[in-house]
Specification:
- The protein is α+β, with helices and mostly antiparallel strands.
- The protein has 6 helices and 10 strands.
- It has a 6-stranded antiparallel sheet with strand order 2-1-5-6-7-8.
- It is elongated.
- It binds flavin mononucleotide.
Length: 255
Amino acid sequence: MAKKETVSQTLIVAFVLCIVCAVIVSSAAVILKPKQEANKELERKINVLAAAGMMEKGADVDQLFSRFTAKVVDLDSGAYLDVDPSTIDSRKEAKNPALSTALSKKDDLAKINRRANRAIVYILEKDQEIDTIVLPIHGYGLWSTLYGFLALEGDLNTVAGLGFYSHTETPGLGGEIDNPRWKAQWPGKKLYNQSGDLAIQVTKGKNNPELADSIHKIDGLSGATLTTRGVDNLVHYWLSEGGYGPFLAQLNKGG
Ligand SMILES: Cc1cc2nc3c(=O)[nH]c(=O)nc-3n(C[C@H](O)[C@H](O)[C@H](O)COP(=O)(O)O)c2cc1C
């Protein structure tokens, strides 16, 4: 005759099962953490290289990325800080009131509420001159904050590329900011006009390539005007006084 199970036996089995599962899940989290960190780091390198137009299929990411130097910039003064970039988490700093600046509605063109006081920039030098500089940028689209990089050539006026690596805009609409054909419009565009004013613009709809000012213009995505307006706003914000303006001014002075 089969032995009758008691309530306490059932509870003991459930308890032991819980402990075993908890140990398996926490061990997996601990064991996989270094791999996750390594993957995050690899992804960051790929995104920087992609924005700079240097990412090719099968490329040696570490070797290509080693040509860049990461530096920490104080955004208010535009000066470099003697801080190890690997000790900084800019996204976390942007949420920390002690390490970020609250933006008034008027100044918050990118709709980010707070801006971290420092940023990590990536610089590629050739013959001791800046060849390419990659700047992290972010701002609100329609549904989400878009995180990406804007790469500039050494003249600090010609765009080398732009790319976003994190957002939740609608695929096929705002999500078309990831479309290589849309992104291909950016390299070669000039940020500033002859008078030195910021003239880069993501427009609503198509631009006439015959017109002289098309050198500053990027076609907006049809059916996704709100996301493209967000891109225009965030690019303007990060190139302004509140973003990398003081830093770019220092570089232009040869600082
Ligand atoms: C389900 C849904 C998702 C949408 N997603 C986006 C989006 O990601 N980005 C965007 O700009 N517009 C999106 N739109 C469209 C906007 O509501 C708006 O109509 C559009 O940005 C206007 O662009 P247009 O003037 O080029 O038509 C979405 C609309 C719907 C119904």
